[in-house]
Specification:
12 helices, globular, 9 strands, TIM Barrel, alpha/beta, single chain, 46% helix
């Protein structure tokens, strides 16, 4: 199932889709799988996210902010492996919620590009977000994604030239990840003023492309703001922080904080109708 379905279904309800990110393996693979299911609303009395973004910890990330790095460093110290991604994808797929994987390209190459695509599709995954892979260097991945019917989600930013923007949008399948801020991930006190301009540029270039906006959303109010102009609202650090807080309090399997944040975000995207 294409991850675009999450955006299309949300649009039919007059709102933006909510995309939630967590890394596999923090604090353990088992608890992270429980957390992914909690993102989907399992065990709570609130709507879940529309699309799950499963992060693969990496020793040399280029995009992760301090919150995500703390969690992924701990996951790596616990021995998380690339194959654990497929366990997490299966846990999400069982809930009926689509899942995409955020992964640095070196890990896919080491696993084997076609083998990774094959195993991701077999686990029920929808595709990959590849933060350090550009379309002009992605021929093996594009071919494997076509072979296994997977989405290709590339990133664009406010600094993307018009030429680069057009090339990236053409290479995407499913949707495009618009980074609303320059720099690494992390919650912000306010939504970047560059986000609406970037979304407008994307729509002027490719009107039918679905746009998910990420980097900085921390609460329901910000989710409502971004959801008023984007097709999808991507949240990561605010969700990861709840698991770090639980772990540091000695209750690492306590997902109540995660449920509270998801409930707030889900209410936020439902508060404001998405503009065309």
């Amino acid at each position: 199932m294409s991850s675009a379905n999450a955006f299309i279904t949300a649009r039919s309800e007059g709102r933006a889709a909510l995309v939630g990110y967590l890394p596999v393996g923090h604090p353990t693979v088992e608890i992270s799988c429980q957390a992914f299911r909690a993102l989907c609303g399992v065990g709570g009395d609130h709507p879940g996210v529309d699309l799950v973004e499963i992060g693969m910890p990496y020793s040399d990330p280029v995009m992760d902010g301090s919150t995500v790095q703390r969690a992924t460093t701990r996951a790596l110290s616990q021995g998380v492996r690339t194959r654990d991604i497929f366990t997490a994808v299966e846990a999400v797929a069982e809930t009926g919620t689509p899942a995409v994987v955020m992964i640095y390209w070196n890990l896919v190459e080491r696993y084997g590009v076609d083998a990774f695509a094959r195993d991701l599709a077999a686990a029920g995954g929808s595709g990959l977000i590849t933060p350090d892979l550009t379309p002009d260097e992605a021929e093996p991945w594009i071919a494997a994604a076509e072979e296994h019917d997977l989405d290709r989600v590339f990133l664009v930013s406010p600094s993307s030239s018009d030429e680069r923007l057009a090339m990236t949008l053409q290479a995407c399948r499913g949707w495009v990840y618009a980074t609303a801020l320059m720099g690494v991930t992390g919650t912000r006190h306010a939504v970047s003023s560059m986000a609406p301009d970037l979304v407008a540029r994307i729509r002027a270039t490719s009107p039918d492309t679905l746009v998910g906006v990420g980097l900085g959303v921390a609460n329901g109010d910000q989710a409502a703001e971004v959801g008023s102009f984007a097709d999808g609202v991507i949240v990561g650090s605010a969700l990861v922080q709840t698991l770090l807080d639980a772990e540091e309090a000695g209750r690492r399997d306590d997902l109540s904080g995660l449920h509270r944040v998801v409930a707030d975000l889900a209410a936020g995207v439902r508060r404001v109708s998405r503009t065309s």
